[in-house]
Design a protein that fits this description.
Radius of gyration: 23 Å
Helix content: 40-55%
Number of domains: 2
Number of helices: 12
Distance between the termini: 93 Å
Strand content: 15-25%
CATH topology of the largest domain: D-Maltodextrin-Binding Protein, domain 2
Shape: globular
CATH architecture of the largest domain: 3-Layer(aba) Sandwich
Number of strands: 11
CATH superfamily of the largest domain: Bacterial extracellular solute-binding protein, family 7
């Protein structure tokens, strides 16, 4: 009798193990997703939407975990790590991919993208498809989704800025990105390149007076605690791609590749919806927290003229030629440059 009971117990245990494996496939994966920003911003919203869509499209087989505030390294470091296959996914500002795949820089030239609709059109159409191919070729990573964060507005702790002359004497933090650095130089400012992870402390300690980022990022990073004034410049519309290591992508089955791409498209749609629904509310909240918002004089004409005349020609070669910029402008229904 004891032998029979023991045999039944062993049989039941074996059945339980078999059932467990049938419910949770051996290939199930919880992917690490690096996120440069803190919680509450566009990057986190894109990541959450992607995870939800991935779980849905794979029947719960695959999921992901977000690591916020650069826990897995700086944004540029995560491109390197994804390229060598030690990191699966990363969400980062597009300017941090540009050093690895320069043609992406066509979307970071000042005053090229002038609205959310412009950003959607170029990233989700033929231009976006070509940039995806280029990043695979150049950087060993694949863009699978796009987050839309809005225009990089200027904040500072010293005074309202409404003209180029008002920038004089301000120390402005910028990413280590040549296009952004040269844009400020065109406005008569010698900006201070600074890693994103160091920016809040730099503002808090008055190492720098100001910085530029979208309203959503200003809010998520609590810059209202260390900045007073906001200027609605529109020189760069911030796009934040979700990249996957090409090594990881190629290791997937055809079914899982399709699921990842589908989840990325759904997350992209969700990101545009998030921006449309949240930016006005966030601006109002920042004003309640004490920030003062102003617009540039003369519809920003002085900023636009200086930046486009000085910066665009300098970077034609690095983005693949003036024809690359003209392809984007044509897609947006604007006149080409000569």
């Amino acid at each position: 009798m004891k032998l029979l009971l023991r045999t039944n117990a062993i049989t039941m245990a074996a059945i339980a193990v078999m059932l467990a494996f049938s419910i949770t496939p051996l290939s199930a994966k919880d992917y690490n997703i690096a996120v440069g920003d803190g919680g509450g911003g566009t990057q986190e919203a894109l990541g959450k939407a992607f995870i939800e869509a991935l779980k849905k499209s794979t029947g719960g087989k695959h999921t992901g975990t977000l690591f916020l505030n650069g826990q897995l390294g700086s944004e540029q470091d995560t491109v390197n790590n994804a390229a060598i296959g030690t990191l699966d996914f990363s969400i980062l500002a597009i300017n941090n991919i540009t050093p690895f795949s320069p043609t992406v820089g066509s979307l970071t030239l000042p005053y090229v993208i002038l609205s959310l609709e412009d950003a959607e059109k170029v990233t989700q159409g033929p231009i976006g498809e070509q940039l995806i191919k280029n990043t695979v070729r150049d950087a060993g990573v694949r863009i699978i989704a796009w987050a839309y964060s809005g225009f990089r507005v200027l904040t500072n702790s010293k005074r309202p800025v409404k003209s180029v002359a008002d920038l004089k004497g301000l120390v402005i933090r910028v990413p280590k990105n040549a296009i952004m650095i040269d844009t400020y130089k065109a406005w008569g400012v010698s900006p201070t390149p600074m890693a994103w992870s160091e920016t809040f402390a730099g503002l808090q300690q008055k190492v720098v007076d100001g910085q530029d980022n979208p309203y959503i990022t200003v809010y998520a990073m609590k810059f209202d605690e260390v900045q007073k004034y906001v200027t609605n410049i529109r020189y760069i519309f911030s796009i934040e791609p979700l990249i996957i290591s090409e090594a990881t992508y190629q290791s997937l089955s055809d079914e899982d590749k399709a699921a990842v791409i589908k989840a990325g498209k759904e997350a992209t749609t969700a990101s545009a919806k998030f921006l449309r629904e949240s930016e006005s509310r966030i601006k109002a909240d920042l004003v309640k927290k004490g920030m003062e918002i102003s617009d540039p004089e003369n519809n920003e004409k002085e900023f636009i003229d200086l930046a486009t005349k000085a910066v665009w020609p300098k970077f034609y070669e690095s983005i693949g030629g003036v024809e690359r910029l003209n392809e984007v402008l044509k897609e947006l229904g604007r006149d080409p440059v000569k």
